[in-house]
Prior knowledge:
binds fructose -6-phosphate; Rossmann fold; disordered N terminus; seven-stranded antiparallel sheet
Amino acid sequence: MNRISRLKKTVTSMCGIFAYVGTRNGIRLALDCLKKMEYRGYDSAGLAYIADGNLITHKAVGKLRNLEKMIDDQTAQCVIAHTRWATHGKVTTENAHPILDATQSVAVIHNGVIENFQQLRHELEREGITFRTETDTEVIANLIAILYKGDLLQAVQEMVPLIKGAWAIAVIHKNHPDECIVAKNSSPLVIGIGVGETFAASEPNALIHHTREVIYLSEGELARIKANSVELFDEARLPITKQTEQLKHSAEEMSKGDFAHYTLKEIYDQPQAVRNAMLSRFFEDYGTVAMDEISISAAALLAVKRVVIVACGTSLHAGLVAGYMLEEIARIPTSVEISSEFRYRNPIVEDGTLVLAISQSGETADTLAAVRELKAKGATIIAICNVQGSTLTRDADSTLFLRAGTEVGVCSTKAFTSQLTVLTLFTIMMARLRHMSKAEGQEFLSALKEIPEQIQQVLAIAPHIEKLADKYASANDFYFIGRRYMYPTCLEGALKLKEIAYINACGYAAGEMKHGPIALLNEKCPTFALCADTLTYDKVVSNVMESKARHSPVICLTFAGDTRLTKIADDIIEIPMTRDELAPITAAVACQLFAYYCAKKRGADIDQPRNLAKSVTVE
Ligand code: F6R
């Protein structure tokens, strides 16, 4: 079983995992805690427990509510439960977790990827094991069952070296009704300690209503959890002790209030979220920024010669805006890297390299891997993150929290504008440490202070944006174009339209259109031109004319009072006048509303778009 090969194709899940051993009804607790992690994956859900010496499973394809419907008055004191996001393999009841071994003795839930599962599966099949699912997890269940000689802990410990990849697992066995074994490698796992009960979950937020005392497992660590005990072991199977930590953040009520969707609520949360991101972080009198959370001396920050930003998706778009700002305003050479590409390079890290790792969740596998590589090469890491206790915040040297509150909608909205706010403050701080004068700092900060009110003004034109969405929602293709600060913004606008409205939207640097994509423009392919960048305004207007000449209907987003575009554009969205560096914040809000209303018009599942998950814990 120990021949390991790296296989390209994986059948895997991203998922939220939960385990409970105690005296309360673990099934109800499992459903409650899974609800808090449902955004990690919602293809299917399931749970398993032991009753009269047998493993009982309930599994349902689709949302968690389908699983809830299957649960009646069943009770159990030792339960594992799972919400799944599949990358390969069909979304079926069989493939939903928990996954059992061939003898129905072992049940496993799993978050991650077993890279060598195909080889292991072939070997197990040669030994006569019949597989019932397409999952990689089934090899774990069968390996444990084969290795089991009466001690579940030992069987899991012997199984671990055989699997390769990133994973967190929870395992129960029908002969051990009062214990659960949990283990992790790269995927997140936290143990919660209650009074006479013990939990495990993919994220602390899922547990915060039940306990605040937690232990974070590190790579390769394993635990046997029972109602009244937690035994910890390191990779070498030696017993270890770890300090418990207290969850400090408050238990947030995750409610969408009167809003139709979490996504809409979170779009409307943005004035407050941006205020929170600024709170006590700047001093207008001195035109400067103080970020006490950064445990790096001013001298070391002054010595920074280069910034490397790593991020994915929406966070990457925030990073791209920051890239422009840090070079232009703070005059620090900055490269902005897609984490999934960067992790496979052999980066050159010179003295004075500072890394900004941007991740809403703090669990994005590619960003974590990029950070680990950069750390190994000696770089200092500042995380920009929304989730306390997440893996990134524990790996980084310092963390700047967004304070945006939980983002439940899978599509990132308030995290993006909060990231931009924090990145702007960071830029001003770095610039003030260098050449920026007090007066320049004050001017920048007073413009930033206006932003929450300016977001409110954009929210006030939601009815106008909804009308435009009604007009354009039937388009199957869209181009978002912009230059300079509006370039990353148009990438973000297009991403929103893709992920929640399922419209094939492409964000493009406006100047690049003529190098190819313009061939695709016609009367059925609208252009969304982001013109709110004063330095490149004239150039973008020329690009708008080029789109019009190809019969592409054009929506122009521009600063209020711009009369030039009214004669050219088919439709206009106005945002309040601000500095170019800050316009991405308000422009993004308009793009979010446009995507939201297009998605609504098209009847899409806005909060949980198909095929997506909130926390991308596999690569
Ligand atoms: C898009 C979106 C994703 C995330 C990306 C990175 O709306 O939410 O593109 O931005 O998966 O996630 P984090 O920021 O958690 O690293």
